Amino acid sequence: MKQSILEIAIITDNRKQILDVWPQVNLKECSFPFEVHYMVEELDDQNRIFIYLFELENAGHLEPMEKLIPFLPFCLMFVDELDESFVKKISDYTSRFETPLYLVMHEDEKLKEKISTIAHLDFKLPEFVILEKQATVSRTIRKLVKNILDKVILHIAAEGKPEPPEDS
Amino acid sequence: MIHVAVIAREKSWFDQIITQIPSLPISFRWFENCSVFFKNQELEDWQLIYLISDRFDLLQEELVQVKEQIPEIPVLCTVPKLRQSQRQLLHQLGAKEVFPWPVTRQEMKYFFKSYPEFFIAKAEEDQYDFIGQLDFVDGVELLRSFCTKENTGILTFNWDERNGRIEIQNGQIVHAAYRQLDPLTSVLVLTSWHHGQVSFKEESFISKRTIMLTNKQIFDECLQYRQEREHLLQAFPPEEVKLFTHPDLNFEDFGPSERSWLYKMYKGRTILELRDLYEGDFNFMLKKLKLWLEKQYIIPEEEYHSIRAKKEAEMSTSGLTRLFRKILKSEQKEKEKETSKEQPPVQKKLPYLFASFENLQIFKSMVEES
Hints:
The complex is a heterodimer. Chain A has 5 helices and 7 strands; from the N terminus they run βαβββαβαβαβα. Chain A is an alpha/beta fold. Chain A has a 7-stranded mixed beta sheet with strand order 2-3-4-1-5-6-7, sandwiched between helices. Chain A is globular. Chain B is an alpha/beta fold. Chain B has 3 domains: 2-118, 3-Layer(aba) Sandwich (Rossmann fold); 130-230, no CATH class; 243-304, no CATH class. Chain B has helices at residues 11-18, 34-39, 56-69, 84-92, 105-113, 139-146, 183-190, 215-233, 256-264, 271-277, 282-294, 301-316, 319-342, 357-369, and strands at residues 2-8, 26-31, 48-52, 75-79, 97-100, 130-133, 153-159, 162-169, 172-178, 197-202, 243-245, 298-300. In chain B, the strands form 3 sheets. Chain B has a 5-stranded parallel beta sheet, sandwiched between helices. A 5-stranded antiparallel beta sheet of chain B has the order 6-10-7-8-9, with helices on both faces.
């Protein structure tokens, strides 16, 4: 039976952000030699989304991040407060990885302000995507992933596939 | 008071115009297109009609319609990217004056002032229901006092060349405009001013609601904005201490708007002087200044003077002493280079190695189907 798994990652040091979006989520710990947590969203019997949770400042996550993130199609970061520590996290990520990072923003009254704050920051920032709440949590996550896949595919169509680096 | 009808497809263009004009007794009203204007023509005794469009062909059509219906009222036109032949055509069709877009404050001032007969004020027409000075009145409390059920009108804020407005309908704040800021941020910024004049005039013709928050929520935002400013100001030295740009700062490393602010602090400015100079959202600017203070791009007065004194002392020493110091400095730098070679190399950015882009399209279809 052919199975398809989309592997992605969420960069966060605050599990509450995940629980706000995904209450009662079943966080599992990897059995293979990376001690990271992950979540699974099953689309159907054969297809699923596999989401790693990474903490940028956790020394134990350094090796798994370096081994996994380059091979993922994209990573996510949830935006609560746009303060200096958050901006520093984005800066840390973009200085270490080329894998695209998408900022996920909640659809609230501060959305416009957050977007204009991001536009004013000095360095080129990753794209953002708005979390559209659906009738169920599962649908919300699928809608989010679908929106991001739309952006990734559009980006590739516009700029072409990135060339893999030459083996040294 | 002269009454100007502004016909513009986008309300934001109207907002941009009215927040740029000087404090002249001019009343602007917005209409989305010619048909809406003709339906409401009887509202005022119009002295000018101002057509704004992003397309020359649409502007031309509107000018013809207006001139056919009301040939006696002068018409101004604004459209971007105008060629000389197009400008001439508009004049032939009856346009009084043609401005390119974006219209500058100087042009607007020049044009409106060339109609001096419009500015002989009639006392009863120019009666504002309220005029106050923000030096003596708190902006938020003032706004709160106007949010009563009976009030429908426009609260205008003027501070030198800065102009903004907050529109109230039946006591509910519905819209605000200040420069390019969104309506809610415009309310926060206008009510935080410590100088300038505020005036209120009753108006029945109010904009569509763009701020969806209740008054209570808006005032809570104003309070948070104020608290955020107080919190940010704690990172700075006392109000009377001047901040200077670091004498060794390389201005070439910065973008043009940052560079202009760093130049402003070249000879020292207090935080209050900077607040009065900055015309936009000062909380946003404060965050930037705080970062610069942490990175020592800007320094307090005492530190600045001590660095300058040291530099001057160095310059005034004899040439021989300076030469020896230079030699010693270069030796020290070479030593540091050797020790740094032993340090681990700076971490390289890991490349993007994902390659199954075709499968992403397939997966996206599966997500949609599920």
